Amino acid sequence: MPFFEYQGKKMHYVDLDQRKDTSAGMPLVFVHGAGSSLMIWTLQLLEFRKTHRVIALDLYGHGDSEDIGHPPDIEKGFTGQIATLMDHLDIEEFVLAGHSMGGGVVMSYALRDDVRQPSALILVGTSSDLDLSKIGIGLVIESLEDHTPKYDIEEISADFKTFSLANFQENVTKFHPATILNDLRACHEFDVTARLSEIEIPSFVMVGEDDDIITPHVANRLDEALPRSDIAVVKGGDHSPMVESPEPFNHLLRKFVNWVEKNKN
User: Fold this and answer.
1) Domain count, the chain
2) pLDDT of 173-223, one tens digit each?
3) DSSP the chain
4) What is the CATH number of the domain that holds 206?
5) Residue 83 belongs to what domain range?
6) The model's pTM
């Protein structure tokens, strides 16, 4: 497994590329949400590696990344980790995607003026304000619902050490109480609403039609506040539409990425 160093600790990431023409397609970088890991993006990594270089990381204290010894920080700590990875891989032009808390991370990253800037953002099931008083009821509802992925795969990939669908489902739905608690505290302090007008790159807001945490109404407000944004409601999707409805999700994601590549510069 590949690692890079951030604040003296080992950080895990994956970097996949099966393109026949390695000059085609813009790199796609995926950031997971609270209590999760890069595993949540498995179906996108497997799909888009055929046409793009795809990268995903475990934020510190998550997945196979080490903890750096202090609580999660969305606007500085996690964004600093992404910046370090982009320097490590020497990537200048890329699309940055974030889910839930990860959406807050990528918005915060785009608001920094001391990092390699993305060409576009993909914001999945997220908001510019993750105050628990606003999303708490939705979190309870989501935790009580069945989120078994709706697809049939016999085996994932050798790139992920060839594990079974059952193992995949276990990893994307695994509950880590301490990690989630720390992440929720970081989310509660996160609010970049007043700065959204500064994000001038193309952004694509994606939300599951049945998301109880970040409802389509909340996602629509984010879309309206961003200067260059479009929105898509993923049919059959809940809070993690990339897992629950991967086919329509990937189709919409590819359309946006193709548009960004066609209209860059």
Assistant:
1) 1
2) 455 677 888 888 899 899 999 999 999 999 999 999 999 899 999 999 999
3) --EEEETTEEEEEEEE---SSTTSS--EEEE--TT--GGGGHHHHHHHTTTS-EEEEPPTTSTTSPP-SS---IIIIIHHHHHHHHHHHT--S-EEEEETHHHHHHHHHHT-SSSPPPSEEEEES--SB--HHHHHHHHHHHHHS----S---SB--GGGTS-BHHHHHHHHH---HHHHHHHHHHHHT-B-GGGGGG--S-EEEEEETT-SSS-HHHHHHHHHHSTTEEEEEETT--S-HHHHSHHHHHHHHHHHHHHHHHH--
4) 3.40.50.1820
5) 3-263
6) 0.88
